[in-house]
Amino acid sequence: MFWVNCMEKNALSVQLLDNHFDGVMDDNLSERVERGRRIEGILCSSGAKVLFEGVYTNPASEGYNFLPSEDTTLDMVRACKDKIAAHFRTDKVRIFSFNHKILIEIPAKHRRFPSLKDIFSFEEMNQGIPFILGEGENGKLFIEDIRNVENLLVGGSDKKEVLSLAEMFLTTLLYRRSEEKVKVILIGETFKPFEGIPHLIDSVVTEKSDIIKTMMSLRSEMYQRIDRCYSAGVGNIQVYNHIMRDQAVPEIVILVDKLGRAIDEIGPAITQFVSDLTLRGRYAGIYMIGFVNTARLMRYPVKLPNIMHRIALHTDTVEESVLLLGDEGADALCGEGDMLISGFSSSPRRIQSPMLTESDIKRVLREVKNNSVFGLWEKDEAFINL
Quick one: 101 and 142 in the same domain? Predict the structure, then answer.
């Protein structure tokens, strides 16, 4: 296996991304089992009768499973949170329930990060429009297809951490999908570094008046595409593109920074757009990813759109976690890409995002823009050569 140099084949080389690792997997099972028994003792002595069942791991945390007695509730276990935190000398304790069990997570003894470069070689990267989430419990890799996610809300207290997922998605897109197949619309000053990438429909949108015009234009495009599908006797734009290849249209992903502020300043117009997109966007091949700062939302509350799929990065308070996810837990995350995903499964799952540095992004963007300017950008879907 080898990576072809980008200048030889006019394609991006994965060597532009450094291979990042920090820490190693803690495989001391007997030590973790002993910790689980200690937690069981703390809970039982406090009146929360549980039976320690087993352990699991993910890159950022250690997890412990407990079977509660019939009269033990989640609230009773959560009431012991301070005792558990004091025993393990950490304030980052997450307690939740799943499949009639109670799970308790504390930060992993050895933190580690999955490699974005390595993830690119997985078969799942060949699905529609891949959105890399990262690595979950016991080494399971999570890569979602934006086509299935429809609309996605990403939030947390640290603006830079929240937007790192936008950078991850855009970098992945540059590698894995041709601009003839997928286009993007970027709304927000933060996306200015991505100005000029070939996937952009137009310049990065920053002015309020331009945001409104963009939303209205997108809604009109959505209905036109749905009419096209109806006339062709098909149910969505993917089938339409497959049948009507000479009339195929690119799918569109909209990334909106500071979605909460946009709702506050623009008002019902953007909320109605998101609502329409939630109901019909997937049929037209138009999807949205919104980014919010939960600390600001607590100060200037707005009604967030009813978006089912959500990602919570670290929040400063329990209240921010509840605002974003409907439950506590994000306040116990460790930062640096440690996140909870909701709506993708029946319970919020903990995922560690891969490492992607600013220098990685700058190298990739420089290569893309240089190739694009000189007409070298390869209009082919297989940007990675194995």
Answer: no
- In the structure, what pLDDT confidence band is assigned to residue 372 with cuts at 50, 70 and 90? low
- Residue 319: which pLDDT band, with cuts at 50, 70 and 90? very high
Question: Contact, 315 vs 158, CB < 8 A?
Answer: no
CATH number of the domain at 46, please.
Answer: 3.30.980.40
Please, which residues bridge with residue 195 across strands? none
Residue 20 placed within a domain: no
Residue 27 confidence class, pLDDT cut points 50, 70, 90 = low
Backbone angles phi, psi at 242, to 5 degrees: -70, -40
DSSP string of 237-287, one letter each residue: HHHHHHH-GGG---EEEEEETTHHHHHHHHTHHHHHHHHHHHHHHHHHTEE
Q: 122 pLDDT band (50/70/90 cuts)?
A: confident
In this structure, what token pair is assigned to residue 297? 């939302």
H or E element in which residue 295 lies: helix 294-299
Q: Flag whether the pTM goes above 0.85.
A: yes
- Provide the terminal-to-terminal Cα distance of the chain, rounded to the nearest Å: 6
The dihedrals phi and psi of 318, each to the nearest 5 degrees, come to -60, -40
Q: Say if residue 182 is in the same domain as residue 261.
A: yes
User: Do 254 and 218 form a contact (C-beta atoms < 8 A)?
Assistant: yes
List, in sequence order, the alpha helices (H) in 136-267.
146-149, 159-176, 208-232, 237-243, 259-266
Tokens of 82: 């301070």
| CA-to-CA dists, residue 202 to 179, 260, 351, 383, angstroms | 12, 23, 33, 22
Of the candidates 303, 199, 204, the one whose C-alpha atom is nearest the C-alpha of residue 252 is: 199
Q: Contact at 8 Å (CB) between 256 and 290?
A: yes
Let me know whether 199 and 79 are in one domain.
no
**Does residue 225 carry a pLDDT above 90?**
yes
